[in-house]
Amino acid sequence: MKKKTSYIGISFIVLIFGIWTVKELKERFKKNDLVEIGSAPRFELTNQNGKKITNKDYEGKVYVVEFFFASCPSICPKMNKNMLQLQDAFYGDLDFGMVSITIDPENDTSAVLKEHAQKLGVKHPNWNFLTGDYTYIMNLANKGFNIFAGKNKNVAGGFEHSGLFALVDKEGKIRCRKDSFGNPILYYDGLEQPGINAIKEDITLLLKE
């Protein structure tokens, strides 16, 4: 009788351990291996249609953020072109979105941004071109996302900025992959094709979470 009880006790322990293990595995693998950097900053700006857009409009969506300006003579056209690749890749997915924030709001009014978006061929309903207060946008770029942007009279166009794209998941967390040394890349190269290929792959992963 004692032997039977012992078997029952062992079976119960194995069952509990099995349930715990399955639960632990589910917790470990319900998210992929992309690194969570931190929460994306809140924002409230005006889009190309004169509508107020906030980070809440992107809740439950995976989205990409870039900082640019419409009259940029250097890297912006390439960044916008690469964002078009993302639009084409995820055109039918309403759980995906894009945010293009001007760093020259004095000139990039909603009307200017609307014309710019039309010339680019923007069709995705969740791709917003945003404008607002200059200081607010500079703080959002440099302190919120930690993506450099600023005025520089000595460069073409009067502004200089990073060509990086930020990737944000459905929970509003900035996410990224690791490099070959196991270090988080933080942001994606928005200028070269390998960076665009990488962010496409990782958007697909985040959409499945």
Automatic annotation (TrEMBL):
Highest taxon of the source?
Bacteria
Domain named Thioredoxin is located at 34-201
Keyword Nucleus annotated: no
Membrane as UniProt keyword: yes
A single Pfam family it belongs to is SCO1-SenC
PROSITE patterns referenced in this protein's UniProt entry, alphabetically: THIOREDOXIN_2
Q: Which segments cross the bilayer?
A: 6-22
CDD domains of this UniProt entry? SCO
InterPro entries registered for this protein in UniProt:
SCO1/SenC, Thioredoxin-like_sf, Thioredoxin_domain
Q: Which SUPFAM superfamilies is this protein grouped with? A: Thioredoxin-like
Enumerate the UniProt keywords alphabetically: Copper, Membrane, Transmembrane, Transmembrane helix
Q: Which family does it belong to?
A: Belongs to the SCO1/2 family.
Which PANTHER family does this entry report, sorted A to Z? Answer: ELECTRON TRANSPORT PROTIN SCO1/SENC FAMILY MEMBER, LINALOOL DEHYDRATASE_ISOMERASE DOMAIN-CONTAINING PROTEIN
UniProt-recorded name of the protein: SCO family protein
Please report the organism this UniProt entry assigns to the protein: Flavobacterium nakdongensis
Query: According to the entry, what is the taxonomic lineage of the organism?
Result: Bacteria, Pseudomonadati, Bacteroidota, Flavobacteriia, Flavobacteriales
